[in-house]
Amino acid sequence: MKITGTGIGQGVAVGSVVRMAERLPEPVDRPSHLDPKLEGERAKASMSVVAAELMSRGAKAGGAAQDVLEAQAMIAEDPSLVDEVANRLENGKTAERAVFEAFASYRDLLAGMGGYMAERAADLDDISQRVIAHLLKLPAPGVPDPGHPFVLVARDLAPADTATLDLDQVLGLVTVDGGPTSHTAILAREKSIVAIVGAADASGLADGDTVIVDAANDLVVSDPSADEVAAAKARIAERAALEAAPVTPGALADGTPVPLLANLGSADGAAEALRLGAEGVGLFRTEFLFLDADTAPSITDQQAQYTRMLSAFAGKKVVVRVLDAGADKPLSFLNDAAEENPALGLRGIRALRHSEVILREQLTALAAADAATDAELWVMAPMIATVDETRYFTALAKELGIRVAGVMVETPSAALVADHVLAACDFASIGTNDLTQYTMAADRLLGTVAKLQDPWHPAVLRLIADVGRAGAELGKPVGICGEAAADPLLAVVLVGLGATSLSMSPSALADVRASLARYSPDDAKALAGAALAAEGAAEARAAAQAVASEITTAREAAS
Amino acid sequence: MIERTVRIGSTHGLHARPAKLFTQAAAASGAAVTISKSGGKPVNGASILAVISQGIDHGDEVTLVVEGGDEQAVLDELVGLLLTDHDE
């Protein structure tokens, strides 16, 4: 049987299914028919079993994880918690309910303390679920540990689950819910886990079923034939060889360079990005400096972070995006007014222009970091809709010492007047996620309209073509820094439309590099032409695919 | 019953690993141990939840009270744990 979903990345995996037990419902608050003493014994027995499990998992894990798990084991039979449970049992509650309430009271206490303590609050929920599951004789929720490599099938993963995912054991990941921008999808992309999300029919898979997870083709194949398994294994071997191949700069078949850059959210990912062959950074998001802060960070603090990032990429290009916040990512010091339509509100350059001191400080810190390092710093503004905003940003950036200033093209308006926009700045970078959301008028975070969030749609491709053409005429670079660049076939189309560099999650670099090397500039234009002429997203992908097969088949026949 | 007031040595206060080491030792001592932040209510020193929910930070003054068993040895051991910087 073939189950469809949204594949993340290009990987393939074969393995047996282990399902993740779902979260337990809140135990009903009904009077117990046992006496408090018996309920107390039940509760204590389950608490000590869970504590022993956590201790033994800790011993197995070793290192820092052992400390964490031992602390959790102590919490599972903590004397204060035992008292809280006993008090509730005296009032006639069931062991399940008493355990639930006792943990919840401490969870709320810790959550209210904020910071590190609030993070530990989630641990209490996890331990609470384990104890209640044991009381109910149900499998413990959370990521299972069958002791052999497996394909994890879950409704969706919580952030806490993904943190404990053992990547040596998880061959692939299939979720019933979730879309391409879900937490699971982002994690899978970051960690290069073969994954299919939003595979509704995967809820029918059972423990022990053999499946092929084929992310490149958006498919989960259950009960595959021997031939299908052999073909999948051959592809796995081929991909392993590809990854082991020496990393070369991105280029088309004739050697035309297409620099492949990394999207990064902090300096932490720099080493990994370089290892995977990033030739620089095409999108460095700076929100991490500002989120969870009550006031904007000081120029000195910002400068230190930017210097760290730029030092890691000495001699390479680093494109930094100034703070992109708005009502969807509210910051109290920038814009905390509730808006009916945050995606269409005071965000990006609009919010920065409104609070210019924040933008000035950020540009000042960036210019100082640039002066202190050897990287080639480019700076761009998000959410540009007009030429006036473009002029405003570039003038301010130049005034404060930024040498190369450009804009992100995320709105159809900026794309439609790209010739004027590019004339007023040094470069453009197309943010395909937002450009698709605004072109299709479909909220990118809303699952019910997720099907419309497809950068293959010819409406989006035509806008990209407009920007590419304007860039070529004016001799100004046009980069792509959305998820679209991580799709190996779409990457070729984007180059055909005039993109001069591609920036993506570092895990996608190898596949895109291999794909670009198969096509000449004329091939890329032919793929782009076919996609542009299609009537919809699916048709555009099919048309580009057909041209690509024709080209590769003709070449194989000739050789 | 004996007591002593000390300052917390761990850089990140009495959270996570330092809290675990302290409560583990308090529980293993067999004595009744309470700990209180200056001005706060004494809580069970063998309860990791009670200890971490006090929000005790680096440099805070806390009072330890030990009752039962070899009180002096237990107090010395626990004070030693509170003064050490486990986060180095």
In a nutshell, what does this entry contain?
Chain A is an alpha/beta fold.
How would you sum up this structure, described in words?
The complex is a heterodimer of chains A (559) and B (88). In chain A, helix 1 crosses helix 5 (115-135). In chain A, the strands form 2 sheets. Chain A has an 8-stranded mixed beta sheet with strand order 1-8-7-3-4-5-6-2. Chain A has an 8-stranded parallel barrel with strand order 9-10-11-12-13-14-15-16, surrounded by 5 helices. Chain A contains 21 helices and 16 strands. Chain A has helices at residues 36-61, 63-76, 79-90, 95-113, 115-135, 159-163, 183-191, 226-244, 270-275, 299-312, 349-354, 356-372, 387-399, 412-416, 418-423, 432-440, 458-474, 488-496, 509-516, 521-532, 537-558, and strands at residues 2-4, 6-8, 12-19, 150-154, 170-175, 194-197, 210-214, 219-222, 260-264, 280-285, 317-321, 376-381, 404-409, 428-430, 478-480, 501-504. Helices cover 48% and strands 14% of the residues of chain A. Chain A is globular, with a radius of gyration of 26 Å. Chain A folds into 3 domains: 2-20 and 143-234, Glucose Oxidase, domain 1 (3-Layer(bba) Sandwich), CATH 3.50.30; 36-135, Enzyme I, Chain A, domain 2, CATH 1.10.274.10; 257-558, TIM Barrel, CATH 3.20.20. With 559 residues, chain A is an alpha/beta fold. With 88 residues, chain B is an alpha+beta fold. Chain B has a single domain, classed as 2-Layer Sandwich (Histidine-containing Protein, Chain: A). Helices cover 36% and strands 24% of the residues of chain B. Chain B contains 3 helices and 4 strands, in the order E-H-E-E-H-E-H. Chain B has helices spanning 16-29, 48-52, 71-83; strands spanning 2-7, 32-37, 43-44, 61-67. Chain B has a 4-stranded antiparallel beta sheet, covered by helices on one side. In chain B, a hairpin with a 5-residue loop joins strand 2 (32-37) and strand 3. In chain B, helix 1 packs antiparallel against helix 3 (71-83). Chain B is globular. The A-B interface holds A 67-68, 70-71, 74-75, 78-81, 106, 109-110, 113, 116-117, 120 and B 12, 15-17, 19-20, 23-24, 27, 43-44, 46-50, 52-53, 55. Chain A: It holds the Pfam family PEP-utilizers_C. Chain A: It comes from Agromyces humatus. Chain A: Its EC number is 2.7.3.9.
